[in-house]
# Entry
Amino acid sequence: MSIHFRNCKPLLLSLSLLIPAVANGDEDWPTFRGPERTNVAPDTDLLEQWPSDGPSLLWKASGLGIGYSSVSIVDGRIYTMGDHLPGSGSDEYLICLDQDGGDLIWKMKTGPAWENGKEDWQSTRSTPTVDGNRVYALTAFGELICASTDGEEIWRRNLKEEFAGQKADSWGYSESVLIDGDTLVCTPGGPEHTMLALDKNTGEEKWSAPRPGDRGAGHASVVISHVGGEKVYVNSTGSGAMGVRASDGELLWTFDIDKTTAVIPTPIVRDDLVFFCAGYNRGGALLRQVPAGSGKVNMEVVYPLQTHLSNKHGGVVLVGDYVYGGVDSNPIPFCADLMTGEQKWKGRGVGSGSVSVVAADDHLYFRYQSGEVSLVKATPEKFERISEFTVPGSGGRPSWAHPVILDGKLYLREGNDLLCYDIKK
# Structure
């Protein structure tokens, strides 16, 4: 195995470099689905209804190329990925923007664009992870890149070539890596190095967790849970959910599923519970992690897969004791009781295709594949759609990039553009 260092310069290790990406504070959104990977923003005092044409557009940044990467936001800077940038050829880039206005600060080439499969399936899909003065990006080809927040590459590893990584489907890698202290955790997939821990500063391997017979990586990102004094890394692959002991990479438990087209949503963790779901009519299940002594953790099934909890790739959120998301790849939002799986409601959305969701201030923000965004009350009582608008420039390629809410602003990546809306009261 080899590690490639390019443009390596000494970096001052500030205190912020030692803080994991899950602990940056409410003012940052350092990785996919936010600091705790819940996709629930801490914002309050947000608009409870929008004007007929939507909330006020503060600014629009263009020239990001095409792709489905969402955004990470740290210290006044926005990070995303795109390819086929205007005037920059067909390559893929890691991109840094100014949070106040969206001006380009820098762009760094990561490699060739992902152009496999149908046109709608091509281009970027991973969201960068920011930690201190470094940013980590994963390309669809499995190139894991560490760069400085000034846009200089520090190291890179290839998950496929160096760790026998494989995907369970043909759509390339889309995970956003986890930074936990000095450790970077990712999921190459396959039976040899299913989950992998690297030193975040050097890229050196710390441990790998093999899962015998694993079909390959899905599209989810690792989340952290704590069970009986043990830290457990939880993620999903094409074979289903899994839990790995953080200290040494021992595989603690698996929740195996039948082969399906793709496993995409990131699991939800609450205390010892894990909510796992997948689309293509596979369903959702609730698992409980149980301490078993000597650093072991077992898993019990609270309820098995229930097809009405299927979610394809828009993700789900947990608000209070209820799970909210979209039914499989349909424009049908749903609410379900976390502990029982009972469906409390489902409603017809304003758009078409799959729906992604972010929650804030007791409301849900549903974004439809066709470009519409709706505001819905986060309540199990009934489906209450309050407002909606259509994102300018949508309607061509699918609007699959997940929305982000931070500091009273709603960020929507729409292909070549990033739009920032004021949703503060």
